[in-house]
Each structure stands twice: as C-alpha cells, then as structure tokens.
Write a structure and sequence with these properties.
Structural class: mainly beta
CATH architecture: Alpha-Beta Complex
Number of domains: 1
Number of helices: 2
Oligomer: single chain
Radius of gyration: 15 Å
Distance between the termini: 34 Å
Number of strands: 7
CATH topology: Nucleoside Triphosphate Pyrophosphohydrolase
CATH class: Alpha Beta
Helix content: 10-25%
CATH superfamily: Nucleoside Triphosphate Pyrophosphohydrolase
Largest sheet: 4 strands, mixed
Shape: globular
Order of helices and strands: EEEEHEEEH
Strand order of the largest sheet: 4-1-6-5
Length: about 150
C-alpha cells in the first residue's frame, strides 16, 4: 500500500453564540461517517494560514481570512487508510495535525454554510453536546485534550 505524509490544518469555528461547526465526512473519505472540524491538507508551497483559509472556504463556504485565528494544538499525529478519488487505490495517510480556533462574528443560525464535496452534512453544536457525536479519532483526542469531552 502506498503511503503519503500530510500536514493537516483544521479550524474549530466558534459562532458568537458559542456553537462549534461539525461536518460529517462522506463515504470514501478519511474516517467516513464521523464528525470532524473543517480542514484538510497543506499544499506544496502553501503556508498553514493560507491552507486553513482555503480549506475552510472549500469545505464549508465560510471566509475566515479577516477573522482572528489562534493556534490551539500542533502536537498530534495520526494515520488512516484513504481511497484515492481518482484511482480507487487504497493509501496509508500519515498526518500531522495543526488545529486553530476561529471566532466568528455571527450567531450560528445566521451563518451560511455551503458544503464542498468532502462533507455530506453539518451541524452547529454546543460544547456540552459534543459527546453525542461520533468524532474522527483526531477530533475525539483534541476535544478530550481541551477538556470538552
């Protein structure tokens, strides 16, 4: 099986009424049928902030370039098997996670979310409701580390 190393950036998007945006991963993606925070891989020649802004815009249609972005965690790693969209080939993806917190100015119900092809649905979730969701292993670990689970 092929192996690929990826630097991953993710955003905990927090609305002004303190809800966190979670997206459910599509079938065939890494950690299918789990909930996670928006994000993805850093492309070659891209810095993490630029990648974060691009990934959030691609995955959920929210422009965060003028929002306060704060690094929360850059020490976690993980791996998963992914099926390549183009070839159907299985690959082992080794990931280094960099998670940022982004404060949004609007209430969750006023934010327009437009899902890209990586997610099949989304929900705004209060911190005390996070335990009701099946998270990706990295999100589970992060939320536990932040003492949100």
């Amino acid at each position: 099986m092929k192996q690929k190393n990826r630097i991953i950036v993710s955003a905990i998007l927090i609305s002004s009424n303190n809800k966190i945006l979670l997206g459910r991963v599509r079938e065939g993606g890494v950690y299918p049928d789990c909930w996670h925070i928006p994000g993805g891989g850093v492309d070659e020649g891209e810095d993490q902030r630029t990648a974060l802004i691009r990934e959030v815009l691609e995955e959920v249609g929210i422009d965060i370039k003028d929002m306060p972005i704060k690094l929360l965690s850059d020490t976690d790693a993980g791996e998963a098997v992914k099926i390549d969209k183009d070839t159907g080939e299985k690959m082992l993806i080794k990931m280094q996670f960099n998670v940022y917190q982004v404060g949004l100015e609007e209430k969750s119900e006023d934010i327009i979310v437009s899902l890209g092809d990586d997610l099949r649905e989304y929900e705004w979730v209060a911190k005390n409701q996070l335990s009701e969701y099946k998270h990706t292993p990295p999100s589970q670990k992060l939320f536990e580390k932040l003492d949100w689970l």
